[in-house]
Design goal:
The complex is a heterodimer. Helices cover about 30% and strands about 25% of the residues of chain A. Chain A contains eight helices and ten strands. In chain A, the strands form two sheets. In chain A, strands 6-7-8-3-9-10 form a six-stranded mixed sheet, with helices on both faces. In chain A, a hairpin with a 6-residue loop joins β9 and β10. The mean pLDDT of chain A is about 90. Helix content of chain B is about 75%, strand content about 0%. Chain B is mainly α. In chain B, α2 packs across α10, α3 runs antiparallel to α8 and α3 crosses α9. Chain B has a single domain, classed as MetI-like fold (Orthogonal Bundle). Classes of the chains: A alpha/beta, B mainly alpha. At the A-B interface, α3 of A face α7 and α8 of B.
Amino acid sequence: MTEAAVRLEGVRHVYAGDPPVVAVENISIEASKGSFVSLLGPSGCGKSTILRVLAGLIAPTAGTASIDGQSAVGCYSLAAHMPQRDLLLPWRRVEANATLGAEIAGIPRAEARSLADRLYERFGLDEFVHAWPSQLSGGMRQRLALLRTFLMPRSTLLLDEPLGALDALTRREMQEWLENVWQSDRRTVLLVTHDIEEALLLSDVVYVMSPRPGHIVARIDVNLARPRRTSDIISPGFVELKERVLEALHMRP
Amino acid sequence: MRELLPAMIFVGLLLVGWEMWVRARDIPTYLLPPPSDLWQAFIDQRHALPVHIRTTLGEALLGLLCASLLGVLLAGLIASVPLIRRVLYPLLVISQNIPVLVLAPLLAVWFGFGMTPKVVIVVLIGFFPIVVNTTDGLLRADREIVELVRSMGANRWQIFRTVLVPSAIPSFFAGLQIGAAYAVIGAVIAEWMGASSGLGLFITRSQRAFRTDQIFMAVVVIALISVMLFASVRLLAHFAMPWNRDGVQVTKTT
């Protein structure tokens, strides 16, 4: 095991309010450098909260969160965060949306553009570089949001249900594609999803979370060979892992 | 054009009806001139009118330009400095209810009979809708987009420039449209307080000479200029927001 790129220890977060909502409780997870790790759990279990802590957007009530050994609390820009909604800027063409994060991170525009140029084809956007976001289909919007995240000069990617808005078939296709894209640059990925098959198809490690207040109920290592295919979901190894996840999801503390 | 056809036919019928009614009832022209008289007045005055139109339109355009600059500047301040927002924003919303036109006599006292009081009236008319709408646009920028850009490491200025300003462009144009619709009327009424040229002056002169036909004709000209100004703003908005065009909405699927 190499050093951990992402590490959370004893993270607890309570959203202020009446009554206060305990979003997550005692979360300790880690992701080694270059690995693909998923957080899997039912809606509202606090998965997104964990990503938001790592993105520096919220300071946890208790516990520590770090990325590459640096505390992520109150520190933006350690990781590239992709929220659930694609959040494309409607007034920027595809090319300007793609390079937004890179530009803000201080990469000169020309350089960011040429980085993007090399990736449009792989992201299936090469014919739409000059289009407006409103001209794109749902799948293309998600790929553009992913491209924007990929183009940020960060060693860790935090993906919050990046395929959540897609229909089931497009989703399967995009899962294979996402694994492919990730394998070509091998950055650490922390993926949030409520799709068991998606988590198992993509990840090296899957953390299973309970309903709110979310806590980790299982850590499952996925040692299936890569590249994986959608058809793998019926292989015996996959089915066995799926059973373990289902068992963990129904476990009550 | 085809959509406007029923309305145009209706207006045509209305004009014919007006003409026939005035002639049949023998109504004196100083009370209600028939449309044909308006046209005749327009032909008679076609050499005098351009100067007046130029003056009034100039006042309206200059006023709208100043209103836009001031409005956008103040909206930027209100949106980015919380203290200024808390002091000024409620006042601005309330101030929209002040009938600016009643200030015209006061402005004539302060600024005399030159171009200044007219431009000031137009600025006041255009300023409030622009500043209120633009501020609204800046403050209503998608919070999640703001948060995303912040998580990318953007500072306040970068957030303002890349997210808030573009989000406020449609609202700015909405405000400018309201301003443009009233700008010409504002300039004309300000001219009633005293002027050396302009459509307002033309109307007061015609009134003194009991030239009702000329007054009616001037009203039509003012309405046409207002409509043109309004349409120009829409055209400007169309070019300023290429992502917002109707044609853009066509979704291509893979």
